[in-house]
């Protein structure tokens, strides 16, 4: 009896990224291939648990045969595709996008220094927003502190839409927030710009979890940063299971000085996909009842 002929593996595709062949699962994106190849790619509106909205265009790459640059976060990888991630066109496009962002938001204030911060990428591509004028139009709005759970700092908001997506169809289905206004006046807002307690917000905190610039911050983190006492490098992160119900959501407890300072959830967990409810994300005070939050 002869052996059956081996079937061709149709579950993967192979593309070329910066001259090197890369294999990814069928249905994967160019960004997946870049990550598999170890190519660092700047992203802003992309999130592993969110539907790509193609809002920022910071992850664009050059695909052979394509007239325009394509967003790597949403473009499916196709067999024999040839991709350049650091061509002159790609560098020029990313540089201009970062300059445009910096005209409305001070990129040096949007996140901690690091290899994935907007400030890092702006320096890498030589972005200089002063080319568009020496007086950038910042929002310059007071930080909104309307409760003891999280704050909103629109001076750091880059309109990536990730919080809107997390509040909407991708996670919570509350639809409490959306983009309001146009041009430099555009910002994330509740309906009729009412305060958070008066809005449809259910305080799940999923918007805070996906914010890439700290425009949304846990109130506990904001207080520690205001006191110059936020020491992330000294914090420990412990995974546990939420104790409030039987769903089995996993929590990541961020602890500093033997005190829980915030709670997140792993994006790769099959139950939560990084999302939580108000109890899981903010209901940990019973562990340390003597800790108070600044009013």
Task: List the main descriptive attributes of the protein structure presented here.
Ubiquitin-like (UB roll); five-stranded mixed sheet; 295 residues; 3 domains; N-terminal domain of TfIIb; disordered N terminus; alpha+beta
In short:
The protein has helices at 30-36, 88-104, 118-124, 162-167, 206-210, 219-226, 278-282, and strands at residues 12-17, 20-25, 60-63, 70-71, 82-84, 150-152, 177-180, 187-190, 216-218, 236-241, 250-256, 259-264. The protein is an alpha+beta fold and 295 residues long.
Under the CATH scheme, the architecture of the largest domain is Single Sheet
**SSE pattern, N- to C-terminal:** EEHEEEHHEHEEHEHEEEH
In the CATH hierarchy, the third-tier topology of the largest domain is known as: N-terminal domain of TfIIb
| Helix-residue proportion | 10-25%
Largest sheet: number of strands, sense, barrel closure: 5 strands, mixed
Could you name the CATH homologous superfamily of the largest domain? ADC-like domains
**How many helical elements?**
7
Number of domains: 3
How many strand segments?
12
Strand content: 15-25%
Radius of gyration: 21 Å
**CATH top level label of the largest domain:** Mainly Beta
Structural class: alpha+beta
Q: How would you describe the shape?
A: globular
How would you state the average pLDDT, rounded? 89
Distance between the termini: 80 Å
Low-confidence stretches: 1-8
- For the biggest β-sheet, the strand order reads 2-1-5-3-4
């Amino acid at each position: 009896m002869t052996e059956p002929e081996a079937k061709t593996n149709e579950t993967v595709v192979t593309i070329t990224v910066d001259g090197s062949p890369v294999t990814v699962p069928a249905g994967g994106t160019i960004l997946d291939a870049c990550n598999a190849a170890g190519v660092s790619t700047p992203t802003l509106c992309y999130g592993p648990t969110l539907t790509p909205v193609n809002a920022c265009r910071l992850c664009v790459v050059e695909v052979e045969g394509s007239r325009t640059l394509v967003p790597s976060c949403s473009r499916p990888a196709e067999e024999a595709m040839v991709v350049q991630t650091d061509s002159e066109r790609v560098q020029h496009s990313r540089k201009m996008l970062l300059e445009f962002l910096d005209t409305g938001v001070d990129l040096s204030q949007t996140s901690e220094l690091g290899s994935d911060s907007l400030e890092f990428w702006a320096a890498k591509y030589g972005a200089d927003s002063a080319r568009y004028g020496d007086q950038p139009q910042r929002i310059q709005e007071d930080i909104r502190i309307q409760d003891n759970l999280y704050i909103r700092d629109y001076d750091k908001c880059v309109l990536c839409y990730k919080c809107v997506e997390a509040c909407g169809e991708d996670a919570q289905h509350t639809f409490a927030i959306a983009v309001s206004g146009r041009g430099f006046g555009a910002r994330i807002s509740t309906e009729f710009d009412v305060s958070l307690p008066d809005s449809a917000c259910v305080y799940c905190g999923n918007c805070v979890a996906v914010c890439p610039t700290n425009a949304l911050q846990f109130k506990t983190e904001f207080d520690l940063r205001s006191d110059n006492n936020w020491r992330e490098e000294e914090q420990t992160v412990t995974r546990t299971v939420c104790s409030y119900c039987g769903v089995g959501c996993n929590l990541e407890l961020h602890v500093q000085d033997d005190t829980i300072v915030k709670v997140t959830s792993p994006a790769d967990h099959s139950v939560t996909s990084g999302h939580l409810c108000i109890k899981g994300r903010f209901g940990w005070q019973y562990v340390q009842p003597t800790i108070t939050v600044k009013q």
